[in-house]
């Protein structure tokens, strides 16, 4: 306690600072210039009595060190993961993963993975077709979907192809929305592309869009004509639903092209509306296709427990798809909560400001990614004054914010 609570054991002559490893910003004895500059700025803010400014300086420094300021091996790892098959901000921030050796040390998991991959444990009702366009769609489904491909392929024959095409059409539309580089400075073109995607792209059997997207999404949209040709082989009822949802979603996405989302959506209503446009409509489309195919009855199109502002009044329109929207918004909000840091780095975040600002100290959405925002240090059991000193400046605002978003 004496060592932490007093200057009794302070050595200002031989020990200047404890530095991080060389992979990190300012590591291996090079922290001096960076920290001296920060210390001077902090001292000036403290002298002026501006506690908020001082706090912001500290948090911004943490952000630089832990998210942007990696050098050497750390930067190489980020660059490597950035070339992954997914577009957007995936790979732009450090992530945790297990090494191949660590994975191989779990033989049961290895066996289960091999059995799953090669054992044909899951039916694929799409692959039974010999049509080259259907084969392309099935192949792309497995490449651009991380979670839905296996489920879609197990749907009843006929229906599985409807949903496969529906998914790929919306994935192509989403690729346009997510590409922040191809349309940089050309927001009007992006808005027009989104609004006219159904009318322009979904009617062109030889459609090919170049220069948009990354990885497998780029391949999909470059060969979108194959998806269109399969689309026109579907029942008229399914075609009508897919086209209608594509038009509605494209217009909804276009409304957000020029919106300033660097700090998230304005409030809960805007957050809900965005989720409706990009996911609630998917729920509506799926429900309508299921009912149109005779797989489900019309009660599935009902209200559900939650009343959404963007759904028609259930008393006037019983089939208002409120339940379908609840399902879609649940899935989308799960992804948005998970992808918080990637979205923040990409400059298109969605956490509602009316929620997160209640828990923020600095007024910056990126604050919740920093160690001082999620209890770093307070987990250390220390006696006396040591515990309070180690935890000084540390809060649990990230956890409180997350709890409110989840609840």
From TrEMBL:
Write out the GO biological process terms.
farnesyl diphosphate metabolic process
Matching Pfam families: SQS_PSY
Q: Which UniProt keywords apply?
A: Transferase
GO CC terms: endoplasmic reticulum membrane
GO-annotated molecular function: squalene synthase [NAD(P)H] activity
> InterPro entries under this entry?
Isoprenoid_synthase_dom_sf, Squ/phyt_synthse, Squalene/phytoene_synthase_CS, Trans_IPPS_euk-type
| PROSITE patterns referenced in this protein's UniProt entry, alphabetically | SQUALEN_PHYTOEN_SYN_1 (PS01044), SQUALEN_PHYTOEN_SYN_2 (PS01045)
Where would you find the membrane-spanning parts of this chain?
A: none
PANTHER family of this UniProt entry?
FARNESYL-DIPHOSPHATE FARNESYLTRANSFERASE, SQUALENE SYNTHASE
- Can you say what this protein is called? Uncharacterized protein
Upper taxonomic lineage: Eukaryota, Sar, Alveolata, Dinophyceae, Gonyaulacales
């Amino acid at each position: 306690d004496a060592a932490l609570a007093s200057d009794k054991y302070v050595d200002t002559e031989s020990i200047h600072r404890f530095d991080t490893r060389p992979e990190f910003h300012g590591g291996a004895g090079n922290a001096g210039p960076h920290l001296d500059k920060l210390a001077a700025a902090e001292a000036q803010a403290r002298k002026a009595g501006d506690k908020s400014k001082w706090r912001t300086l500290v948090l911004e420094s943490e952000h630089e060190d832990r998210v942007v300021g990696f050098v050497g091996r750390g930067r190489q790892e980020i660059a490597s993961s950035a070339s992954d098959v997914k577009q957007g901000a995936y790979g732009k921030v450090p992530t945790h993963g297990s090494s191949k050796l660590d994975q191989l040390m779990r033989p049961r998991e290895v066996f289960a993975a091999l059995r799953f991959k090669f054992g044909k444990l899951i039916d694929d009702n799409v692959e039974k077709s010999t049509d080259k366009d259907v084969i392309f769609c099935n192949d792309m489904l497995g490449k651009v979907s991380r979670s839905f491909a296996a489920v879609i392929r197990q749907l009843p024959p006929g229906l599985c192809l409807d949903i496969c095409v529906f998914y790929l059409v919306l994935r192509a539309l989403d690729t346009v929305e997510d590409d922040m580089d191809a349309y940089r400075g050309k927001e009007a073109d992006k808005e027009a592309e989104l609004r006219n995607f159904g009318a322009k792209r979904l009617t062109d059997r030889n459609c090919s869009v170049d220069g948009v997207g990354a990885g497998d999404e780029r391949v999909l949209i470059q060969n979108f004509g194959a998806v269109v040709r399969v689309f026109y082989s579907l029942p008229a009822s399914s075609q009508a639903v897919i086209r209608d949802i594509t038009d509605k979603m494209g217009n909804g996405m276009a409304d957000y092209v020029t919106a300033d989302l660097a700090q998230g959506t304005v409030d809960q209503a805007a957050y809900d509306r965005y989720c409706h446009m990009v996911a609630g409509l998917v729920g509506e489309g799926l429900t309508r296709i299921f009912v149109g195919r005779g797989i489900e009855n019309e009660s599935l199109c009902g209200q559900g427990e939650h009343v959404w502002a963007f759904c028609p009044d259930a008393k006037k329109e019983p089939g208002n798809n409120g339940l379908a929207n609840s399902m879609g918004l649940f899935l989308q909000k799960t992804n948005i909560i998970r992808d918080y840091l990637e979205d923040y780095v990409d400059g298109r975040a969605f956490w509602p400001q009316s929620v997160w600002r209640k828990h923020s100290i600095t007024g910056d959405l990126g604050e919740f990614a920093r160690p001082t925002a999620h209890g770093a240090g307070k987990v250390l059991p220390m006696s006396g004054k040591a515990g309070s000193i180690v935890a000084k400046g540390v809060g649990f605002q990230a956890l409180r914010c997350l709890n409110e978003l989840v609840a």
